[in-house]
Amino acid sequence: MRARVSFIIFLCALRRLRRDRSGASAVEFALVVPLVLVCIFGIFEIALSFLAAQLLETATQDSTRMIMTGQVKSTSTSRDSFKATVCDRVKVLLNCNYLYIDAQAYSSLADPTFPSPIENGKFVDNTKWLTGKQGDIVVVRTFYTWPVFLTNFFGYNPSNLEGGKKLLSASAAVRNEPW
Prior knowledge:
By secondary structure, the protein is of the alpha+beta class. It is built from 4 helices and 5 strands. The chain has one domain (24-175). Helix 2 packs antiparallel against helix 4 (79-90). The N and C termini lie far apart (107 Å).
């Protein structure tokens, strides 16, 4: 009899608990918030990556005009000086220690070949600094190793380098003007 009374009290307590909805919102919030935060941070990270890529592209396009107009030749600009010029335009968002500049000159449009800068998940720095002469076609490529924080979440992994990094690249092709 005593066990039956305890069981009835237990059932009544369960019914009261089932009807009481005062903590349901807090539990639902605790279950949903981590997923929402990860999605928000993922969107923020992707947007920041696209912004960095666009900034790198614009800086590359603008700085390549120095090569096209002969300013690089007339002032004997080195790769480091050119990198500093690009860096001045991207340092708001990018760390210039991870910025690489490649400039190669070609006599015709049939000549350019561009090997992949990524081998076995690592960035291979095989960049050159050849700005050409008047009338040459010059292709300037810039590379930046961008850190990725949210990797392999929901099967999405934006990194293409080891260590959770993504290689951002930008390029500009110009024909050198007569100086």
